[in-house]
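Notebook entry, cofactor series.
This is the third protein in the set we're modelling with a bound small molecule. For this one the ligand is zinc ion. I'm keeping the input format identical across the series so the outputs can be compared line by line later. Sequence and SMILES below, as received.
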Amino acid sequence: MEADSTTYENTYHANTKVADSLPFTICPGNYKLYQDFIEDNVEKNIEYQIVERLQQFGLLPNTVKCPSSNPDCNVVCKVARVIDRVQWVCAGCGKRQPIRIGSFFFKLQCSILQVLQMTLAWCEDVDITVALQHFDVKPKVAISIYDRLDELAIKELNRQKLGGENSVVMAEMYPDCLNRLSPDTTDQPHVHRILMLADTKHISTYYRLHVIKGDPKNLHSDNMDDDEILKSEVEMVLSNMTEPGSMIVLGNNVPSIDGCVSYQNLVQHCDVDMQRFLSSRVWRQALTLCAASRDLCVAGTGAGVASGANVGVTGAGAGVGAAACALAVQRYLDASLYRLRYEDGFYDHILKLISAEFTETSASDAN
Ligand SMILES: [Zn+2]
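Returned structure with ligand:
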């Protein structure tokens, strides 16, 4: 019938147009996986279909144990009048459990679909406000999803050190290096210095970006040597973030450290193309992230400008603000760096990490 076919076509059309209606750009591979999860093939309710696909993927457990542990206990998946439209029900004792038990989704106050959507948005580095408004998720819940994903990414990032035997790790200080590497075109004042590390053995360069904590601009400790504080912090970061045996090349704005090579020394042995790469191209993406991270600096927005009038009060305020936003900046840089290593396919990667980290597997096998 004509009415039905029109309806069908409209629905189909609406589904394929979702990407266009999203308020952010999305990698084709990430979008394809998302579509695979939410595709409605009309046999069962859509929530049930999504649950089955997530079980297949490993994001939800395929089986769970009954807490009653009676001999005749046997937990099965059943349609129910709950937000997920399905739940675990024990055929023996009747005990019910949420379908999300033993998973990343457990106790998140939104639908499973919304968690998938917020995760997709996080993978695409979408501003949280844009994402939560579009997907109609409460700010508190959205923040908790983004936080957990940030933490997961940072944990993975920290697993992998840069360099190794016969590998070169470059080090440079932001924003001190800016005039040489690229002109500074932003208006925001520089609150933080960021130690940039680049591992040149990866074709898409691997970076670590460390927000300097003992920043002389923000900590006014007259009886301590600022250069020494900076130097010891750089030393600590290098030993934490690089593999032993790495050849570490220090840029002109990094304090000199025993056992490291200076940039000037290295370039003497390089051809012009390599010199050009090492002096600018190798830092391109790191500089973009450092510049973007300045949007997170609350300390730089008002406190710095107003510091003339109330030196005592504003000075203290700026110190506290700088310490707080240094954490936010560090978090943003770490999560972004991890994202940068994967490009398209990151949604699949992060969902697999979530599965490995949160999904309790085959709890009933023990019986
Ligand atoms: Zn039972």
